[in-house]
Amino acid sequence: xxxxxxxxxxxxxxxxxxxxxxxxxxxxxxxxxxxxxxxxxxxxxxxxxxxxxxxxxxxxxxxxxxxxxxxxxxxxxxxxxxxxxxxxxxxxxxxxxxxxxxxxxxxxxxxxxxxxxxxxxxxxxxxxxxxxxxxxxxxxxxxxxxxxxxxxxxxxxxxxxxxxxxxxxxxxxxxxxxxxxxxxxxxxxxxxxxxxxxxxxxxxxxxxxxxxxxxxxxxxxxxxxxxxxxxxxxxxxxxxxxxxxxxxxxxxxxxxxxxxxxxxxxxxxxxxxxxxxxxxxx
Length: 282
What we know:
A hairpin with a 4-residue loop joins strand 4 and strand 5. The protein is built from four helices and nine strands. It is of the alpha/beta class.
């Protein structure tokens, strides 16, 4: 199954002649470019190598590097059905040349990178924040930006507007034991001392700490009762002998015995009124 990622083996041969660009480490087709050569390389990719569309400008933060930020340009060639990325490294103080003159859509994309990472772009005619709110402090996509932020907002019914307040996190909800859910906490809750320890596996009481474990003695009540023949009644030998004797009787005797049992007598039929002799009226 072929992968959709644009690998170096799938890249057009003409990209090998791309000036001022170094192959970027990885499997996909990408190049590292210096800041001063960015506009020239992107112009060559658009005009000479037919990468007509600028799909995205992304930012990446590597705090351990001297130039901690990477600005990544994602290009698409409609005629070759191929994508390529161009990486440019910079820091907080050094801006990157804008490519608004090549792709007007880069104006908004550069504003997003500026808003999230604080990377400047020289030549952008309207370099303002575009995603965060007015007066926002900091750059949210930087690795050193706190996850909780600096301020929180809410609608004030008293002031009839949205108000900003410093972030307040109640400590009552921030006591974590950092244990796996299936391992359970180490602290003891009230009432845990009454719990009976269980063995591993199926829930069953744990054996006593010392001493001989009790043995399960098989009682007569636990002995299963089975009847292999109709003569086996389960009541012992006397009951089996009587059942055998009754089973050997003729059918007529059995039927007579069933009729003669108390409670089996037929109820007398009620007397019915008939006509008087002669058919005369009373």
